Amino acid sequence: MHLYNRYNDRNGAGSYFANFTYSFDDEEVEFLRHGNSSNVEPGKSPWQHSDTPQDNIPDPDEDDKQKLKLDIFPVKESYNQLEIVTVEIRLKNIHNQPM
Asked: What is residue 89's DSSP assignment?
């Protein structure tokens, strides 16, 4: 985490970004231009990305899988534009074994 405000407090206002070049190095530019689009475009790659082939990952038996139920309930029926949305989240273990 970059805490530039703490850096500025010790070294003077604006000092954190004073030497920042605001540019990409050669490897970054090459990646952005020629990389796989799912790795370059934000939000395009799968949620869980792995270089391991899926065939090598063992699939647990159905009985061994943990079973959870997630419920999300809005606190209000509707919200106005730019209003903070508040929800109630419930997570329940529906498996016969404790977690």
From this structure: E
Q: Summarize the confidence of residues 85-91 as an average pLDDT.
A: 91
How far is residue 40 CA from its own chain's centroid?
A: 15
| Assigned domain for 56 exists | no
- pLDDT over 70 (residue 95): yes
How many structural domains is the chain composed of? 1
Alpha helices of 1-99 — where are they, by DSSP H?
Answer: 4-11, 26-34, 37-40
**Full residue range of the structural domain in which residue 20 is found:** 4-45+63-93
Helices (H) and strands (E) in the chain, counts: 3, 2
For the chain, the straight-line distance linking the first and the last C-alpha, in angstroms and rounded, comes to 32
Q: Is residue 11 part of a domain?
A: yes
Structure pTM? 0.32
